[in-house]
Amino acid sequence: MNTFWTWIAALLTLMILSFLYKDNPLFKIAEHLFVGVAAGYVVAIEFFNVFKPNLWDPLTQGRDWWLVVPFVLGLMMFTRFSKRAAWVSRWPLAYMVGIYSGMAVIGFTEGDLMNQVRASLVPPLSGQAMSGFAQSPGVLTALELTTNPIIVFGLICILLYFFFSLEHRGTAGFFARIGTGLLMVGFGAGYGYTVMTRIALLIDRFYFLMSDWLKLI
After folding, report:
1. Can you say whether residue 64 is alpha, beta or left, with left for phi > 0 and alpha for psi between -120 and 50 degrees?
2. pTM for this one?
3. How many CA atoms lie within 13 A of 17 on its CB side?
4. What percent of the chain has pLDDT above 70?
5. Where is 33: in which H helix or E strand?
């Protein structure tokens, strides 16, 4: 049985990789199969892990009658399959979008924005550099002396780039261009990280083909 599913996985992998040559029916079959299986898997997970324990079981067992409200809102979503009653689905959809937007704003503020602001509020010299200078002057490494100053300088340059009420000319323009370069470095690092992740997935697929399928490794 394991050999059977290994062959299925290997053939589907080759069908996906066939897109490197050109778009073809084999790739479309594998793509549609992947999307269908993924959608079915998500529906099954949501039903058994979310809907049943959090809504259906408490409701049918006589607990938490207020859950009738989200149950009715969920049923209203299915009116989208009717042309006449499709407008009914806008109410639960608007409610859901509003709730999740509020949660997302709070989560982003606490999880990302405040952490970024807190991480940017650093002293010109790090505590490690200050303590090291007090204990052994002249032995500090360049990294200890320049880490925080570079962060502070880069932050000021990037903020100056986004300060649009000041024309970017002269000294302000010079530092704003430095901020632009630092932004490009940050975007490039993020893009490189994404590329490395995709390359790692590709290497894993090739390793699967060479090891589990062809037994060459």
Report:
1. left
2. 0.67
3. 12
4. 89
5. helix 25-46
